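A student in our group prepared the protein record below, which I am reviewing. Here is the record exactly as it was handed to me.
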Amino acid sequence: MFFIVCLVLSGLTAFPLVTELRWAEDLLSASASPVPEHFPALMEWITRVREGLDTVDREQPFMLYGTDWLAFAHLVIAVAFYGPYRDPVRNIWVIEFGMIACAGIIPLALICGPIRDIPFWWSVIDMSFGVFGVIPLLIVRRMIKRLEALEQAATAAPAPVPASA
C-alpha cells in the first residue's frame, strides 16, 4: 500500500508542474528560508526550471502534455500494484517488475541527466527514488516468498485422517 500511495502522489504532482515550481521558488526564496544563502545551486536550479516551465507553458503549452502522460503512467502503475495486495503469491511478478524499474532509474539518470544538462546532484536525487523505492519491494518480495512456501507446505502435507468411532 505504501508503494501505491507513493506512486499516486508522484503521479498527481506531475500534473500541476508550473504552479508547483512557482510555489517552490516562492517558498525557497522567502526571507526566512536558508536556501538562497546555504544552497545557492539549488536555488539557481529551481529558478532555471521554473523559468523554463513558464516559457514552455506560455509559448509551447502542448509540451506539458508529456508530463500529463507521465502522471497518468504513475497512476496506472499504482493500479497494477493492487494485484500483489489482493493476491500476493500470484502477482509477485508486479513486485519484481517494480524492482526492475527501480534498478532502471540509475542508468536512466546517469545517461539522460548529462544529455539534458541536469546537474549531477539532481540526478543523485532522482536515483535515490530507485534506491529507496526498491527497499519496500525487497521486503514485500521476501514476505511473499515466505507466504508461498507456507502455502506449498500446507498443500503438500497429508490431510488428517478422521478418527473412526
In short: The chain has two domains: 1-80, 84-147. DSSP finds eight helices and no strands in the chain. The CA atoms of residues 109 and 116 lie 10 Å apart. Residues 1-80 form one domain.
